[in-house]
Write a structure and sequence with these properties.
With about 150 residues, this protein is an alpha+beta fold. The strands form two sheets. Strands 1, 4, 5, 6, 7, 8, 9 and 10 form an eight-stranded antiparallel β-sheet that branches. It has a two-stranded antiparallel sheet with strand order 2-3. The protein is globular, with a radius of gyration of 17 Å. The N and C termini lie far apart (about 65 Å).
Length: about 150
């Protein structure tokens, strides 16, 4: 009986930690980046190599709460190169010309209960994200952007 109570307590505490952050405005439906790439929830993104000297990712953060932090402990560590992740939802931070589109993703094979946050535009530009649904970013960019 104590064992069952213990398992139930752990389950409840883990689900409370897995709740999505309230910061930023959630964006529903397909979204279009400034470069003309259309993304939707459920799309598969593929990581490239990290842009930091340590091999970590400069524009992919451990959680949404750490978005924009400069400390290396806030960024996704190395070891995700050429792996896939699924987009779970989109958030919009900032306003006007400072608007940034952030995707919350869960890398495949990961054991973390937290979603990773990807600052989409700079991650694609620095080649930390190299493809969407198996198609290279360079092929998805509209011709007038090149």
């Amino acid at each position: 009986m104590k064992w069952l109570l213990f398992v139930a307590l752990i389950g409840i505490s883990l689900t409370s930690q897995a709740q999505l952050p309230a910061t930023g405005k959630r964006v529903y439906g397909p979204v279009t980046t400034k470069r003309g790439i259309v993304l939707k929830e459920g799309d598969q993104v593929r990581f490239g190599e990290g842009a930091l000297a340590s091999g970590g990712y400069q524009h992919i953060y451990l959680t949404f709460d750490k978005l924009g932090q400069k400390a290396e402990t806030a960024h996704l560590e190395e070891g995700y190169a050429y792996k896939y992740a699924t987009i779970k939802e989109f958030r919009e931070v900032g306003s006007g010309s400072d608007r940034r589109l952030v995707a919350l993703i869960r890398p495949k094979g990961g054991v973390s209960i937290h979603f990773r946050a990807v600052d989409l535009e700079p991650a694609m530009q620095s080649k930390e994200i190299i493809s969407i649904n198996g198609t290279a970013i360079s092929k998805l960019i509209s011709k007038k952007q090149i």
